[in-house]
Amino acid sequence: MIQLTSATAIESAITKARTVKPLVRVNAFGSYSVMNKTTGATYTVTCEKRDGKRFASCTCRAGELGRACYHLAAAVAAHIQLASERAASH
Ligand SMILES: [Zn+2]
């Protein structure tokens, strides 16, 4: 579980996500399946908000070690988009 403070903190992961272009599937608001289309490896990324702070975690090895992996970056990008769409529809 890592705390999302700013985009710069996960910048290298975002850059990698742009290169790998993993497939992000929405399981539910805040829960995403991220698949590497080349290897077929799929991990679950969870995004949540606690006390006004945003947290995210990934089930891959790097994610379990508390590192911002590209799965997490890709899911967070999808989550932010989904959250803004939800906010716009209310
Ligand atoms: Zn990961």
Give structural notes:
- The protein has helices spanning 11-20, 61-64, 70-88, and strands at residues 2-4, 23-28, 31-35, 42-50, 53-58.
- The termini are far apart.
- A hairpin with a 6-residue loop joins strand 3 and strand 4 (42-50).
- The mean pLDDT is 94.
- Helix 1 (11-20) packs across helix 3.
- It has a 5-stranded antiparallel sheet with strand order 1-5-4-3-2.
- By secondary structure, the protein is of the alpha+beta class.
- It has 3 helices and 5 strands.
- Zinc ion binds next to helix 2 and helix 3.
Tags for this model:
90 residues; alpha+beta; 3 helices; 5 strands; 37% helix; binds zinc ion
Distance N terminus to C terminus? 30 Å
Shape label: globular
Strands in their spatial order, largest beta sheet:
1-5-4-3-2
Structural class: alpha+beta
Low-confidence runs of at least 5 consecutive residues = none
Order of helices and strands: EHEEEEHH
* Portion in helices: 25-40%
**Rounded to an integer, what's the Rg over CA atoms?**
12 Å
Small ligands present: zinc ion
The total count of helices amounts to: 3
Short description:
The chain has 90 residues and is α+β, with helices and mostly antiparallel strands.
Question: Strands, helices and their partners?
Answer:
Layout: E1 2-4, H1 11-20, E2 23-28, E3 31-35, E4 42-50, E5 53-58, H2 61-64, H3 70-88
Antiparallel strand pairs: 1-5, 2-3, 3-4, 4-5
The structure holds zinc ion.
